[in-house]
Specification:
single chain; about 240 residues; alpha/beta; two-stranded parallel sheet; 9 helices; about 40% helix
Amino acid sequence: LYKESLRKANCVIFQNPDDQNDFKNLMILKRNQKTLRVWGSGIDLEEYKPTKLPDQQVFLMVSRLLIEKGVNEYIKAAAIVKEKYPNSIFRLIGGFPSNKMASIDRNNLENYIRNDIIQYLGEISISEIKKELSRCRYFVLPSYREGTPRSVLEAIAVGRPIITTDVPGCRETVVDDINGKLVKPRDVFDLVEKMEFMLDLSDEMLIKMSKGSIKLAKEKYDVNKVNEKILKLILK
């Protein structure tokens, strides 16, 4: 279907290099077909501005509650980390999808909520998400694969250290040890290790990571730069 739909495209735009390479290697694209790589959909840096890291040890995940987003890994890791770091806080934002087969188990999540492991905020407005981003100290997305995750772009723009998976779409949003940590996909214990690594970091090192995220957002993910690149292609 991709091959047929893109057959007459003058140029195909990709948000990450892995998808770009897969389309070429699987011969979905014609041999000499032009491609353009952009840095996701971009983020409005006037709308999402840096905020000071809070003192509370708050982890935040924002995502639809899909299995493939790594929600199960997040809540399982939270339970393990809280045993060693009882003051750590794990918040989760997002709604349940209509496709129950793709969704995490609601009863399982409620069990973690009842046991004070997860603070579930539900599906909230964009303005409320912005407030929660400013209230978190670390942002987590253990997804199995992405184009470029919008939630992570918002988090780096406000200056949050990131924990995300070393998979297509996610890995480009983190420079390891500069603005966050990469974890193995579907690996709860690696996620626990990286969460504990963050909790053990000094304020000085976390502030450096925060600045690393802001720098990455400005250099690569500024929506004005992304749009300019696409418009140049369209207006050629």
